[in-house]
Structure to design on (148 residues):
């Protein structure tokens, strides 16, 4: 089995994503890709911004619902929602074709379902869209919520 996996891994496929599929399986791959594409860049940006503002926080805290940040002093969890992956009503555009074999429609549908269940989370949270980060609205939102 291991030998087979190694063969798959080094079978000469140029696409790194397909290699990951061989190793991790579909479900894990989609989880990894979703983290890579939807989270890291944007979250890094927010992380840097929070650092610059001296807002104490933890990125990817272990908490129900997978919030992106815990804002420690306020005790508030922050979700940063990608305009694409969470289906922003203002900015979502469907891609012309599937990319890298990712089933984005299903993923976005699941994200939106999960977002809809946030009202049941057992802690205080706020969610911001990617576009709020890009247009500098995060500061206003955090101030309005008594966090800054
Ligand atoms: Zn948006």
């Amino acid at each position: 089995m291991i030998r087979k996996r190694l063969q798959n891994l080094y079978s000469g496929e140029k696409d790194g994503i397909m290699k990951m599929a061989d190793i991790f399986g579909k479900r894990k791959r989609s989880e990894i890709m979703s983290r890579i594409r939807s989270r890291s860049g944007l979250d890094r940006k927010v992380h840097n911004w929070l650092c610059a503002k001296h807002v104490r926080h933890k990125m990817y805290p272990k908490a129900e619902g997978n919030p992106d940040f815990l804002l420690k002093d306020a005790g508030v969890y922050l979700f940063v929602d990608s305009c694409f992956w969470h289906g922003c009503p203002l900015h979502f555009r469907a891609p012309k074709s599937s990319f890298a074999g990712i089933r984005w429609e299903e993923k976005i549908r699941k994200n939106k379902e999960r977002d809809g269940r946030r009202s049941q989370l057992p802690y205080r949270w706020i969610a911001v869209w990617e576009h709020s980060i890009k247009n500098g609205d995060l500061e206003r939102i955090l101030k309005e919520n008594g966090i800054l």
